[in-house]
Amino acid sequence: MAKLVSWCSTEDHPGVQGEANRLLAWTIKNSKRSEVIKTVAAASGVQCLVAMLAAEHAVMRNEALLALAMVAAVAGDLPEETVQVLNDKTMAEHLCAILKEAKDEPTAANALAVVKLLIPIGILIQLVQLQIGAEYYCLQPRRA
C-alpha cells in the first residue's frame, strides 16, 4: 500500500500517477471493507483521494468521490490525522468546485453524499465559510 501511495504523488510520469490514484480508489470501492480503508488511511492514501478531486477528467473526480464516500462512512474509526484531511479546507474547496461545475447529476449527487457523510466531522463549516466568507465566525464550534 505504501508503494501505491508513493506512486500517487510521483512527478516522474503522469500516467503512473493517474493510474495509481485510480487503483487506490478502485481498491477502496471494490473491497467494501473497513479494514482496507484503515490500511489506505494508515498509508496516507486519503490525501491522494482528496487531490484526485482536482483531476482534469470527470471520471477520475467521480471515482475519488465514490471512494471518499466510503472513507467518510467509517470516519469515526479512522486516525485523527485522516479525519483532519477529510475536514481540511482543501477538501472543502474541491467539493465546492465540483458542485459548482457539475455537469451531470451523478457527480453532483456523489459530491453531496460525501458532504452529508462529512457533516458530523465539521465539513459543513468549511463549505459555508468558502461560500459566504470567514466573517461568519458564529459558525465556528464553541470552545470552552
Question: What descriptive keywords fit this protein?
Answer:
144 residues, mainly alpha, Leucine-rich Repeat Variant, 71% helix
CATH homologous superfamily designation = Leucine-rich Repeat Variant
Structural class: mainly alpha
Count up the helices: 9
**General form:** globular
- Provide the residue-averaged pLDDT: 84
Query: Unreliable stretches, pLDDT < 50, 5 or more residues?
Result: 134-140
Task: Please give the CATH class.
Answer: Mainly Alpha
What's the architecture, going by CATH?
Alpha Horseshoe
> Radius of gyration from the CA trace?
15 Å
Biggest beta sheet attributes: none
CATH topology: Leucine-rich Repeat Variant
Count of DSSP strands: 0
Number of domains in the coordinates? 1
Structural notes for this entry:
By secondary structure, the protein is mainly α. It has a single domain, classed as Alpha Horseshoe (Leucine-rich Repeat Variant). The protein is built from nine helices and no strands. It starts with a helix and ends in a 12-residue tail after the last helix. About 5% of the residues have low confidence.
